[in-house]
Specification:
44% of the residues lie in helices and 21% in strands. With 278 residues, the protein is α/β, with parallel strands linked by helices. The protein has three domains: 54 residues, Winged helix-like DNA-binding domain superfamily/Winged helix DNA-binding domain (Arc Repressor Mutant, subunit A, Orthogonal Bundle); 96 residues, D-Maltodextrin-Binding Protein, domain 2 (3-Layer(aba) Sandwich), CATH 3.40.190.10; 90 residues, Periplasmic binding protein-like II (D-Maltodextrin-Binding Protein, domain 2), CATH 3.40.190. The strands form three sheets. Strands 3, 4, 5, 6, 9, 10 and 11 form a seven-stranded mixed sheet that branches.
């Protein structure tokens, strides 16, 4: 596969237009167009949807991952110190708020670009090539990736004590419209779909603050919940009840020093966090 054509394809997807890619590559838009057409002829598929912005087609998504993998390996080979290496990772907000950052501190060489999403959707960014690695709840291996089980993140239902009397109708704190954790907990107890009043609070620390202030109840990681319960900031609304969310570390299947070191650091950071007394 022609390296120049591949780099041009990556630039078009990254910048969103042929013109912006031309400026980035210091060539004419016509040269960019010719390279993309040549690459599409060699592959036999349309790889770029000509729109505003330009995006990879389904066929092109696999090539986006491949182009990113090639770029990562080139950077590592050219710079053993890894000063120029950028690693893009998608992680759910609760992991980012609790245990994930210490893993990055163990591998300080690269520059990190973090994305956040619900743990049931983080693998989507692997499929599109936006991320090189992901903390995900999906036990489905994305093509071209490896999957490592981390363990389970345990959540407790917490809030003001008065919410316990009628939990299915009590106001609920939800991270965003993808977050169905609270609904899953209620469905498991009531065996029916319920739609209580909802406050959307899309930040992990503010999510917990909203519960502390009594705006509603929600599912909080037990390592955060136990100290708050002990301090009387809220109560566990259903005794001995919890919800476990399995987490996996999924990353590109390439022989990368950075991803290898980061995988070890992520596994160790999660294990230490789970073993720490709450």
């Amino acid at each position: 596969m022609d390296a120049v054509q591949l780099a041009t394809f990556q630039a078009v997807v990254d910048t969103g237009s042929f013109e912006a890619a031309a400026r980035q590559l210091h060539v004419t838009p016509s040269a960019v167009s010719q390279r993309i057409k040549a690459l599409e002829r060699s592959v036999g598929q349309v790889l770029v949807r000509r729109a505003k912005p330009c995006v990879a087609t389904t066929a092109g998504e696999a090539l986006v991952r491949f182009a990113g993998q090639v770029a990562l390996l080139e950077r590592e080979a050219l710079d053993q110190a890894r000063d120029g290496t950028r690693v893009s990772i998608v992680v759910n907000a609760d992991s980012l708020h609790t245990w994930f950052l210490p893993a990055l501190a163990r591998v300080p060489g690269p520059r990190y670009e973090l994305h956040t999403d619900d743990e049931h959707y983080t693998a989507d960014l692997l499929r599109t090539g936006t991320a090189m690695a992901a903390v995900t709840a999906e036990h489905v291996v994305v093509q071209g990736c490896r999957l490592e089980r981390l363990g389970a993140m345990r959540y407790l239902p917490v809030g003001r004590s008065e919410f316990a009397a009628d939990l299915p109708n009590a106001p609920m704190i939800v991270y965003n419209r993808k977050d169905r954790l609270q609904h899953r907990f209620l469905a498991g107890r009531t065996h029916r779909a319920v739609e209580p009043p909802v406050h959307y609070v899309p930040a992990a620390s503010a999510f917990v603050d909203a519960i502390r202030l009594g705006l509603g109840w929600g599912m909080v990681p037990e390592q955060i919940a136990h100290p708050d319960i002990a301090a009387g900031r809220y109560v566990q609304l259903v005794e001995d009840a919890h919800l476990d969310v399995p987490l996996y570390w999924q990353y590109w299947k390439i022989e990368s020093t950075v991803l290898g070191e980061l995988t070890t650091a992520v596994q160790e950071a999660f294990s230490r966090w789970r073993a720490a007394p709450s």
